[in-house]
Amino acid sequence: MSGVVVVGSLNADLTLYTECLPRPGETVTGTGFAVHPGGKSANQAVAAARLGAAVRLVGAVGDDAHGAMLMASAEEAGVDTSGIRKLAGVPTGIAGIMVDARGENSIVIVPGANGSLSPDDVAEASAAFDGAAAVCLCLEVAQPTVLAAARAGRTAGAAVILNLSPYADIPRELVESVDILLVNAHEAAQLLGLDALDTAGQDWAALAERFARAGFGSVIVTLGSEGAVVLDASGGASPAVVRVAATPVAAVDTTGAGDAFTGALAARLAAGDGLADAARYASVAAALATTRHGTQAAYAGARDVEAMRARAGARP
Q: pTM higher than 0.85, yes or no?
């Protein structure tokens, strides 16, 4: 099995660039505006496809210009878009994004057609899961749809990856259908009921045990410029903890970097890598994504990732 299936959201990213993000009630002057193809699931699909994976995307767009842009971007990257429904009279989802001079961002999502994606759509696209090695999910579509996709992935024998973003509480049946949980530090703290993670002094083995008690044996916590941590409590009494070093780059836009990580992780798992090696590769792909503006257009191909890994002294 070598395929990747991504089920979820496609959004048009309406991006405003500014020196600093406005505080509540404040108006600031922007430095630029752009419309990019986005949506967490579409981003993940494009990222995986650019790295050589055979990718199928299941989702929904409106019959409008934004939908056409998203379909064209996915197809240009080599994604199979036959599982995407085009809905008449329903707008494509959008994300309003503000990006400051440091590359940090703030995002508001309007679901549009994404809100119509249902378990029936997953059932209708059941053939997409045939031969899947990895299934990528996030929470930009309804949770019953996410659960249906997770179960379809399990039935197909694929590794089910849940990116718990945007953060929400999830039911036990979804927890039990997930093989790999992918969270950032903020989402990890929310899930475990912590005020925050002390990323410098964190007892990661103890955190892995907390995740295991919450039902997640294999977890990746992404830490932005500090890299990532792979936690695996699924193999025995002592959790395995692997620190993944950050790749130093000059970041200009962090929008979609997490999706680049997820897509790259899925691509490498589908290619047969273990979880830690896949995470190391994904960390480099995510870092490269921050060096250009936008999301999908910023994602690197396999040659660029391998070149960066070589420069950083990573294993080939």
A: yes
